[in-house]
Structure prediction request, 684 residues.
Amino acid sequence: MGPGRQGQDVAASFLSHVSTGRPREASALPAVELEHVHKWYGSIHAVRGISLRILQNEFFSLLGPSGCGKTTVLRMISGFETPTEGTVYLKGEVANAIPPYRRDTNLIFQHLALFPHLDVYDNIAFGLRLRRLPRPEIARKVRAALELVDLVGYDTRRIHQLSGGQKQRIAIARALVNEPAVLLLDEPLGALDLRLRIQMQVELKEIQHRVGTTFVYVTHDQTEAMTMSDRIAVMNHGFVEQIGTSRDVYERPRTRFVATFLGDSNLLEAQVESSNADQTVLRAGAARLIGPADAGATPGSSVTLCVRPERLRFAGAGTASGGDDGNRLDARVRDAIFKGAVIEYRLVTESGARLILQAHADAARPVEPGAAVTVTWRKEDGVLLTE
Amino acid sequence: MSPTYAATPRGARGRSLALTGLLGPATVFLAAVLLVALCILLVNSAYHFTGTQVQPTLTFEAYRHFFTDPFYAGVVWQEIRLAVTTTAICLVVGYPTAYAITKIRRPGWVIAAYILIFSPLLTSSIVRAYGWLVVLARGGLVNWALLRLHLVAAPVRLLFDVTGVTVALVHVLLPFTVFPILSVLLRTDPALREAAADLGATRLQGFFRITWPLSFPGLYAAAQLTFVLAMNAYVTPQLLGGGRVQVLPLLIYENISDLDWPLAAVEATVLIVLVWATMLGSNLLFRRRLATLEDRR
Prediction:
């Protein structure tokens, strides 16, 4: 299925300027850098002062709900929009005013925008012809690009004869054949069905590994971002809320928004009672909770304690790892949802707070709805959110 | 991206029933009027005209007359030239107009542009023709301006000549040129131009490699429509040609007035054949090109 078997040699012939042995984080200059970038559309402030650095050869995702400004950021990198304020750098050079056709970036459009009046070959050769490359070189590069996306022999197919997944790959080939310094992707997998989308995610990641180009990927799908990205910038209302690796943003969300946008979270409102270098003691209603140490937690201040559903356990139900550090909440099971690998329990505490607990489906005995339970978690599994 | 409808057997029958119901009246009406009229026409064209009346005997002498007298060849030639010139001018003026309308951002201005383009159709053709009489006459607006600007020494003949007829025809037919082109341009995904720019195309390259080829079906439809309408124009050459611009519709009317039905029928047949031959010929010529563009839907 995947183009995996061609291996490294295709990548080498495809991108001759990328030395294959180069360490991934070697380059000093960021491929893309944004400095205090703002974008206004009339009276709408779409992007509100974003600064970020995207390293060379990195798979970087801009993740956020629709209208958060992620596509605008992408369009400013590709040159279709000019920042109202701030600077966009490409490989260290100011790029604000460079038109798209003179940028070393290529964009894969949300609806792909393949040229319907041209066949597959002409679509892929489009950029090469504009650069007036010699005909044999164009033929060679198009072939290598088709090999890269595993569609050799599709040269004369017309666009409407291709399946959704094939169109997807042609769009990737059409962009990558130009050997851009940065490949920008604007939710290109949105139109595919779930199975194909997951397959394309893996393939995109593989292609990126092989060609070693910087990928900037815009998506509203957190699983997609986490599957593929080296780093993710989580965006909301024109701001970047957090930048980090998938693991970082999932396990150490910095804001309420990040905690809720990436997967499910249990959010408990609490007051800080005391804090030291080891832990933070919190009070949530009648319950006393222990959170991780946090420099920002001053006694008396209000915080939100965030615990991921898979970190919660039923107290006493098989003590697999360590103690519970004193975090205990009594709750009642409202619902148990079987999800294949896991069972998701919807709980409600005595104070009325709603919790989600995820347990492996093979756990000794499933808990029935209506049962009174005690929920526990380790202090380091909690994250204190101050915003 | 376009939705596809699964045609279940029942749905298919329902569809064909609905289609019959929807298309039936128009089909019957067109068939009755067009086919019956065509048959009468063909029969008439073969009859004998004594000079005062039509005799129902098959002679085909009207055909002989039409095809041997060089006058008629001249008329046909002038008419084709008129229609081709009009169509060409309409396309040259209409394409940029349609393109410009797609670029207007303010909705108010778009409506204004539509009204402007449509305005010739909101006036009766007679009123419009008299309007052009006033503008193009010896002492009319155009000549006055030309004289005042010292571009010409004496008034130019614009009226009762092919020039005036062409100008007036372009005026009437421009909406029929603009709208097919406009509708195709509006259906073209703007992301395609962006994709071209992203791949290194300047605005000009983007236009000629993407917009232009994709708008070809609209341009083609516009050309056909304009040409057919120009070939069949009657009022404009009648009022603005001043007898110097002879075209088949005028001759047909004159011959019918003179009761020479066979000759009128021959002229009508020739006109129909000319128009159909042009349509079919151009369809054959551009078949491949159109086919590759049509399947984008």
